[in-house]
């Protein structure tokens, strides 16, 4: 049996199809379409008619891809990016009319739990914290604690941080303000106060983008373990906020995320600083992977 999950985020729509046999799950297709809703949002937070049309057309295309490889069921999920759209009902209705499928909107803790389920293998490393860098929100999970109620979903992410400064790139003073904003959010929500974690498991397309720039800047050879050293991450951030050629490395690696990359890097670095984490490991699995696993576990009873 093949199951497909389509994930709606602030900058893209992604598809995962897996072949399921009992408890065995083998990836068949992984595909991402760049569809940024940010350019279609009004000042009041409503997605324009053209934006809704782009979303529906992109979802229909991904459904067709899933069906071509034999997916027997297709599920559409959305996370924080959908929760922040004021005319959410219109988008859901348009998708249902255009595709015949509903959208399941995950709340913050369900999103964090799906991240945890997708990355349970990292619990063997011990003393790790998971950070899913979304567009408008971020999930933070102690990998040693499987209790959903102890997982955090904070209304802070690169897209939100980007709005805190003027221009395309933050200056030194802007970065200081971003760090204070992140710290205030962690303190306000009492996110693991006075705790330390040896490492951070980074999740999400923004984490993937950050690693692409990091690997390019430091000429990191290809490896199955995508590791970011905390000290080097700080050096990369300094380059990105002071160098005249920063646009080159961003456009070369992440043209669709040039405005998100630096805030994402600062967020990851500040979390690592706060919890004394010396390394960050980028995972290739996220919410849709975890959601698909939960579907299979529910099916297997």
Commentary on this structure:
The chain has helices spanning 49-68, 80-83, 88-99, 108-118, 158-162, 172-188, 205-217, 230-242, 246-253, 261-274, 287-300; strands spanning 2-8, 12-21, 24-34, 73-78, 103-105, 128-133, 138-142, 152-154, 199-203, 227-229, 279-282. Helix 1 packs parallel to helix 3 (88-99), helix 4 packs across helix 11 (287-300) and helix 7 (205-217) packs across helix 10 (261-274). Strand 1 (2-8) and strand 2 form a beta hairpin. It has two domains: 2-105, Nucleotidyltransferase, domain 5, CATH 3.30.420; 109-282, Nucleotidyltransferase, domain 5. Helices cover 44% and strands 21% of the residues. Strands 8-7-6-9-11-10 form a six-stranded mixed β-sheet, sandwiched between helices. A five-stranded mixed β-sheet has the order 3-2-1-4-5, with helices on both faces.
List low-confidence stretches. Answer: none
Strand order, main sheet: write it out.
8-7-6-9-11-10
The radius of gyration over CA amounts to 19 Å
Structural class estimated from helices and strands: alpha/beta
How many domain units?
Answer: 2
Query: CATH first level of the largest domain: which class?
Result: Alpha Beta
* CATH architecture tag of the largest domain: 2-Layer Sandwich
Beta-strand portion reads 15-25%
**Pattern of helices and strands:** EEEHEHHEHEEEHHEHEHHHEH
Number of strands: 11
Largest sheet: 6 strands, mixed
Tell me roughly what share of residues is in helical segments: 40-55%
Q: CATH H level of the largest domain: which superfamily?
A: Exopolyphosphatase. Domain 2
Number of separate helices? 11
What name is given to the CATH topology of the largest domain? Nucleotidyltransferase, domain 5
